Amino acid sequence: MSIARASIDxxxxxxLLMIGCLLGGIWGFxxxxxxxxxxxxxxxxxxxxxxxxASADQVAREVTEPLESAIxxxxxxxxxxxxxxxxxxxxxxxxxSIYDGTELPQIWDKLRKRVNDARGSLPSGAGTxxxxxxxxxxxxxxxxxxxxxxTDAETHEIAEFLRRELLTVDGVADVDLQxxxxxxxxxxxxxxxxxxxGVSPAAIATAIxxxxxxxxxxxxTSNGQDIRIEAPQGSNTxxxxxxxxxxxxxxxxxxxxxxxxxxxxxxxxxxxIRFNGQEAFTMGVSGKSGQNIxxxxxxxxxxxxxxxxxxxxGVQIHPVYQQHIVVEEASNAFLVNLAMSVAxxxxxxxxxxxxxxxxxVGATLLLTxxxxxxFMAIFGIEMERISLGALIIAMGMLVDNAIVVAEGMQGDMxxxxxxxxxxxxxxxxxxxPLLGATVIGIMAFAGIGxxxxxxxxxxxxxxxxxxxxxxxxWVLAISATPLxxxxxxxxxxxxxxxxxxxxxxxxxxxxxxxxxxxxxxVLAALGVVTVVCYIGFGQVKQQFFPDSNTxxxxxxxxxxxxxxxxxxADEMTILEDWLKDREEVVSVATFVxxxxxxxMLTYAPEEALPTYGHLIIRTHNLDEIPxxxxxxxxxxxxxxxxxxxxxxxxxxxxxxxxxxxARFSGSNPVILRELAAEAADRMLAASxxxxxxxxxxxxxxxxxxxxxxxxxxxxxxxxxxxxxSAFLTATDGIQAGTYREDDRLIPIVVxxxxxxxxxxxxxxxxxxxxxAANAYIPVLQLIDGFDYEAQNTLIxxxxxxxxxxxxxxxxxxxxxxxxxxxxxxxIEAMELPDGYMLEWGGEYENSTEAQSSLxxxxxxxxxxxxxxxxxxFGRLRQPLIIWLLVPMAVNGVxxxxxxxxxxxxxxxxxxxxxxxxxxxxxxxxxxxxxDLVRAEGVPFRQAVLDASTSRLRPVVLAAATTILGMIPLLxxxxxxxxxxxxxxxxxxxxxxxxxxxxxxxYMFFFRERRAEAAEA
Length: 1016
Description:
alpha+beta; Multidrug efflux transporter AcrB TolC docking domain, DN and DC subdomains; 19% strand; 9-stranded antiparallel sheet
């Protein structure tokens, strides 16, 4: 008994399957995890090492080099990049894409071991390397919090209170605080007094260091029980620190008599954050992996609503980004799009097959969709942008199987067969070809499912959801569709010709008959059209991933190296004031000194620099961004002339960085800068669509170098370290201890405030304590003046080689791929010295890596598809006919993209792959039908005409429902190019299936045709 017949005879089992899909889908939709973007693992860790006092070059040679040497021994490492600044080494370690997220913890442990083993090779002044393996954590619920009128200590209390309470919310993984006011306790000695008394800085520092130290005091035994002795409590107020005593020449003197002690903000904080122009700090909340971010987000909102009653009046909590709101809106939009797609399918089917067929196929489609959601929930596939899009993409493909079965049953029942006989007859002819065609359609996406890189991981749910939905559509097509057809379809009077006797069928049959007669001109015309379309396809703009449809965009601003964080903050105020007057602006979050917490998976924070300013600007909707961005760029470039100003749209998917990037690697920084300058000149000469040319080494920075008078200094017992310590005390100050306030550790800094903005003249007047002479010596006696030197203070390395990158953006509306092609030849024509090399980065590198990874998997996918098509027919000619149609699928794609002006993005490439699967699927069903009709003894030409005519309605309806089902995606920035690719390509592919395939079949089987004619 066939499955289709059994589905009617054993209706209870079929009903259980259908009800299971329906109820399971409802359960799945209620419980499935939801995200904005699919989770892809950021396979990157950061190693930070402090080396105070060292230049960027020293940091690179003495700290970064030995650590990189140890790290590169790991076979899992793909690349090592480093950024070296004065006193700080930052190494970014990227892991090969073949390792998934479950293997990373073990790899990070191995990295820590390598780094720890290399510590012995570091200089004595270097700190302990810190390995940050949570670099990719996403804090998708992101707030800016303002505490006007509160002290800095109270602001910290409020922040810790919120953090502590939100960590108790179910589903919350971590809470990240950023931009809290930084405080220090400053001890400012009176230089005249300590000089007269002969108090050394070491004595002051020692007294402060011991004031609040944590020390062990041992334990005693009493009555057989050990009792721990707690050390005496140290100074726990600023006033107590001021009352510390210092021994001077046998006398005890209060610190208050020698210095002033104040608690205040640090003069140069690491970061300054404002929201809508007012001081703020940010709080990012991350959810636990695999849980529904919508539910977590609403629980966070509820908890914050409760907490606001406990917060002091005046505390303001502003959302910067709420992932759960975005996801919820996307889910609701999906339901609307789903309803629209189902309605479109039902209406089209009702118009061309009648309302009965529309109900049968529409019900099967609905069951397939909800059943897919059920299996997504079981397999832990979250509902996010890609998986939702996959359901819409699959929508048109899902009806193919049901249409073929329903149309076949209707035809047989119209001839007088019972529903059981019709179901068995149709299933026996089509279920195997449909299964093979369905698997081929799935395998068209297998390159994505098997791709191990970030792009493949990002798009994996596309493959998984389409695979689940298409297989389920086949199961329901041979089970639920026959049962529903049994209830809805009517048995006819046996009129065999009525089914295909309408005017449309007659017109198609006559057209095909003419095409068979003029087969050579028809093929020639198709060949010419294909060549023209391939030429036209070369004119289509190329793109990796499109811009996001979130109404956010960024401003990046960098002052020249050496600028202060306060200068950068002042420059950002100019932009904030301008944006206040724009009605399109909902909010502006300002970050000075570094980027925001990673609030989106695709957001990559910039490296911390005091010269870096960053704005996150939210508008009411996407349509407002282009004009606002254009006006802001005009204003920013004209007003902020001291630095580098640029804006950026948020893009979908992995990648990021500058669209155009050329990397030059070599040993000599001077030569590297010369190559970068030459490349920048060549780029500007080759294209007028470039903007914001820059290098990642930034400008050289002016450094003040005292000339140490060795003979004179050593004669009075002053070492280089003593001199450096004196300069540090006179400028930034020396941390002498730590003041503990609850769980906060506030540095105690000894400094004098005699240095102004005069630079070297002020430093000359400083005093240096000589322990040998037990006296203070003027700096002027210890040095032979000062030199100024321009140094590289931001040295980038890649795979252990100094590497400078020339980066550029493209003007608004320009295509990065086209601009890259315009400049590529000129840059590659540069003569590089021996030992130097050029590599391309930017969008070209990201796209090339993604397509290369996809290309590695495609041969296997294609092989499986070819093998299946051969096994279905057991011959070679039929599969060859079908595969000859595939290259022609590009015709409709080229026409569609050129007509709409959309670029061929990575998602469009996926659309082209799916289009190939659809085309092959339709071709298999048509060619299989011709074989079956011929096997019944029908004359060759008539068999081709009859079989093709009988496949007209399934092919046209499948194409029409797919094309119309793509309409909701045209408004989605991420899927628009894919939708156009499928719509244009499938429209042309339908012609190929209905005309080219029969013509090719007619020509390939010329021997059989001639043999039949000879017998006649």
